[in-house]
Each structure stands twice: as C-alpha cells, then as structure tokens.
C-alpha cells in the first residue's frame, strides 16, 4: 500500500480525502515527462497570443467550478467559505492577468554600439518546481503556475502535505481546458522528503517557493548548490502602526481584520500592533473589545468571521506560542485559549488573542505565530517606532495609520517591508509586485515582472557589417 496523505477537515476532525505520496521513482518519471512535454508539446514555441488563449480557457474553466473548488478548499484547510471563494477568484484573475501579460510582453532592442542589431528575447527555464504552503492553496498555486506556464515552462507543483487537494484539481482543469499533457503535474508529500528531492532533482532548473523562513533557507541553499534560481516568498511579523492623529475607527477595524482575518494564517498578518503612547490604552481597549466579539464558527456558517486553524497540529503550535508568551511575562488581554463552547470541541479552533507587556525583542514579538495572535507595543515617537518596527529579521509588509501625508511618506520609506499600506491594510493584487525584505524573501512575484521570474534573458546580435571581421581591432 503506497504511503498516503490524509486531508482532515479542521472544523470537525473528519477525514476529507486521501492522496498517495509521490515516490522518488514517480518523481523521476514526472520530471522526464515534463521535459518531454516541454520539448515536444509545442507549448514553448506557441505564439504568445495562442498560449494566452489556453490560459484564458483555464481561467474560464476554474470559474465554472468555482463553488466546488471553494468548498474543497474550505474542507481542506478550514477557511471561511467566503474567503475560499475569494481565493478561487484570485486564481481566476491571475490566469487572466498572465494571459494578458503573455500576449503583450515585449522585450527590448538594445542600443547598438557597432554594426550589428542587438536585442533580447525571453526563454523559459524548461522544468520549474512550484512549492506552496497550506494557507491559501489555489491562490498561491495560481500565482506560480500561471506565470510559469505563460513563460513557456513545464511545471511540477508541490502543494503542502497539509492541504493536498486543490493542486490535483488545478492540474485536471488545466488539462481539460487545453493545456498539453504533462505540462502541469503534481507532486505530493512532505517537504523534507519529496519536496527536498524535487528541488535537488537535476532536471529541475528553477524553483519558486512560498512558505516558512526555515524551509526557504533550506531550499535557497539547495538551489545555490545546484546554481539554479530560487524565488522565495517567506514569513513575516508585520507591524501595523497607529499614530495619534489616525482616523481611529477605520484604523481599529483594519488592525482587527489585519490579524484575525484567515485566523491570522496569512504571511502579511499585521501581528505586531504599534500604538503611539498617548493613545495606547484607548486604542488597545478598542481592539480587545472588537476581538472579543469576533464571530467564531463553522467555515460555511453565514456571517462567520473566523473559522478553525488549518490543522490540529498547527493549533497546538499556536497554543504553545501563547504559553511561551505567558512565561515571557506577556499579559493575555483576551483569548489565549481554545473556545469553551461544546460546538467547537471537535475542531482546531483557537480564540482571537491579544497580548501586551512584552519587549519588542522578546521571542513573542520576534517570531511568527501564523495564528490569531496579536502583540501590542507602545512607541514614543517616530525614531522609537522605526527602531522597534525594523528590529526584526522579517520585512514582508506594514500598515501605517495617520492623517499626515508627510509622516506616512517618511515612515513608509523608512520601514523595511516589501509592501506598505497607508490607511488601509492587506491589499494585494496580481498586477502589483509582492515579496519581502530581509528574511521575508528573495524576489518579487506578481505584476509583469512576475512572468520574468520564470524566464531567462537571451541576448541576440545580428551582424550588419559589410567588411569581414578583423582578428584584432
Ligand atoms: P512550510 O515552509 O512548512 O512549507 C511550505 C511548503 O514547502 C510545503 O509544501 C512544504 O511541504 C514544503 N517544504 C518544506 N520544507 C521543504 C524543503 N526543505 N524542500 C522543499 N520543500 C519543502 O510552510 P507552511 O507551514 O506550509 O506555511 C506557513 C508559512 O508560509 C508561514 O511562514 C507563512 O508566513 C509563509 N507564507 C508566506 C507567503 C508569502 O507570500 N510570503 C504566503 C503564504 C505563506
């Protein structure tokens, strides 16, 4: 009997489905098939507007199955149904966007310095690996697969062992929509085993990874050893900042949505709340009051604001994180426990939690919980804020609430983050580059350059000389 991954619905603990773990022999065969498809399917030679047509068809086909995909995603990782629908919409939009980029992307004619014409073309790498986490499977899968295919590659997609169900659906839909056979294949299994084997495989020429910083570092090391490029989208501990002059109610609403949306299982979760000292108690009280009223519930319940965490073992990790915050001297202002109502007994639920009283250098304020856990910190002035907010290894995102345009500009430039939101939070669109500073990542996904991640520049020269070339000038 081959080893299997079991998808458990974290809302009720019931088994949803099983998938077979890919063996090393199967991985080798998949890489061979991918190269064969790359060379023989005609995909990479296909004129861009025709390749784009297939990507549009994939988007249409995902749209037709939107509801069932959203429900499967909900069962696989417990996110509220509305959020899961949003993720499927995002995947559809991503395929359409990269179809558009595919047929409109231009390369350049470079300034010639002699009697030749010089220009660039973009070439695919061949076979690329796309490795994704469990928090937003179909959305993250599309963010990698659509531009990689648009660039002419074959893709081996490895979803997380904790959310294995959406990737095979995406591959099936793409094939049925007209993508040549074996251009998108799925590899299943644990990161340290089959994931590492995929990255190390000599037939894989580029790797695109989204996940935690520890895994990202291992993948970056393995890619470096092979001298292949690695795009790494990693974790965060993003500061969400409220100045005294902020428009208070929208700021509080965004702070709460920024951390408790997706039960905090978002790389850009605003997990460190910085409040200007003069308004610290008032804002913190408002945040805690709102956190206490968040509607926890089953992911398909109407009006539910927070579902369970994605798995029972992840819930245990979040519990341990909060327990450590207690030992560090943190004050638990709300949450800090599993809900007491019996309706939640069978699921991986955890209450929205707000902690304060810790130094910004404490482990609680430095490490990613990837759960519904917010730490609050006061700051005296801009210099104190920058010292604390930048005092972390991460640099993925930040939010700034102030009515002063000049301050927003100053802080936005000074904070070390790949995305800065001013008087808003967690906006992310496929047309705008996304990625991290420092330990939050290497490279930028999304946007037009998101396609170029999966392509290599080739420079071409066409001679225009009338005289034979001289050996020495
Ligand atoms: P993870 O790093 O444990 O796993 C992510 C994926 O990588 C999984 O498919 C896993 O099987 C695989 N993997 C793990 N180790 C590997 C290795 N050595 N070689 C090859 N593959 C390996 O992350 P997770 O727990 O699934 O997801 C949570 C993390 O992802 C958080 O840190 C979160 O911040 C991050 N994340 C980042 C972004 C972003 O865009 N920056 C988006 C979502 C999630």
Automatic annotation (TrEMBL):
The active site is at 233. The keyword Oxidoreductase applies. Residues 5-459 form the Aldehyde dehydrogenase domain. Pfam families: Aldedh (PF00171). It comes from the Bacteria. Keywords: Oxidoreductase. GO terms for molecular function: oxidoreductase activity, acting on the aldehyde or oxo group of donors, NAD or NADP as acceptor. SUPFAM superfamilies: ALDH-like. The keyword Nucleus does not apply. PROSITE patterns: ALDEHYDE_DEHYDR_CYS, ALDEHYDE_DEHYDR_GLU. Belongs to the aldehyde dehydrogenase family. This is Acyl-CoA reductase-like NAD-dependent aldehyde dehydrogenase. It comes from Pigmentiphaga litoralis.
């Amino acid at each position: 009997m081959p080893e299997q991954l079991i998808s458990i619905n974290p809302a009720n603990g019931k088994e949803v489905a099983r998938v077979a773990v890919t063996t090393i022999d199967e991985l080798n065969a998949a890489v061979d098939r991918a190269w064969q498809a790359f060379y023989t399917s005609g995909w990479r030679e296909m004129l861009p507007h025709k390749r784009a047509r297939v990507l549009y068809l994939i988007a249409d086909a995902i749209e037709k199955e939107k509801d069932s995909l959203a429900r499967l995603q909900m069962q696989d990782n417990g996110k509220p149904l509305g959020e899961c629908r949003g993720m499927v919409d995002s995947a559809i939009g991503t395929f359409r966007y990269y179809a558009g980029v595919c047929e409109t992307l231009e390369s350049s004619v470079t300034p010639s310095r002699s009697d030749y014409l010089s220009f660039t073309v973009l070439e695919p790498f061949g076979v690329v690996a796309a490795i994704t986490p469990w928090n937003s499977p179909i959305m993250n899968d599309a963010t990698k697969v659509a531009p990689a295919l648009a660039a002419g590659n074959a893709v081996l997609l490895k979803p997380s062992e904790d959310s294995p169900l959406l990737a095979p659906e995406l591959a099936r839909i793409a094939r049925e929509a007209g993508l040549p056979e074996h251009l998108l294949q799925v590899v299943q299994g644990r990161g340290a085993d089959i994931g590492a084997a995929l990255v190390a495989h000599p037939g894989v020429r580029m790797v695109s990874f989204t996940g935690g910083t520890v895994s990202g570092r291992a993948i970056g090391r393995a890619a470096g050893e092979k001298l292949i490029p690695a795009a790494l989208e990693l974790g965060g501990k993003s500061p969400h900042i409220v100045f005294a002059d902020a428009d208070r109610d929208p700021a509080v609403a965004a702070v709460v949505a920024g951390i408790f949306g997706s039960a905090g299982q978002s790389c850009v979760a605003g997990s460190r709340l910085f409040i200007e000292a003069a308004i610290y108690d008032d804002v913190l009280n408002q945040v805690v009051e709102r956190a206490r009223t968040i509607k926890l519930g089953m992911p398909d319940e109407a009006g539910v604001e927070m579902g369970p965490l994605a798995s029972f073992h992840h819930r245990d990790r979040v519990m341990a994180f909060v327990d450590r915050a207690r030992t560090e001297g943190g004050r638990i202002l709300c949450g800090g426990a599993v809900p007491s109502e019996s309706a939640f007994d069978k699921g991986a639920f955890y209450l929205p939690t707000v902690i304060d009283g810790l130094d910004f250098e404490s482990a609680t304020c430095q490490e990613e919980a990837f759960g519904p856990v917010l730490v609050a910190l006061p700051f005296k002035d801009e210099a104190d804020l920058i010292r604390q907010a930048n005092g972390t290894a991460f640099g993925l995102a930040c939010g700034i609430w102030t009515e002063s345009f000049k301050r927003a500009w100053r802080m936005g430039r000074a904070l070390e983050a790949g995305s800065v939101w001013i008087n808003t939070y967690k906006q992310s669109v496929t047309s705008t580059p996304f990625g991290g500073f420092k330990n939050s990542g290497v490279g930028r996904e999304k946007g037009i350059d998101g396609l170029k991640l999966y392509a290599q520049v080739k420079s071409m020269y066409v001679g225009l000389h009338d005289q034979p070339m001289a050996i020495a000038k």
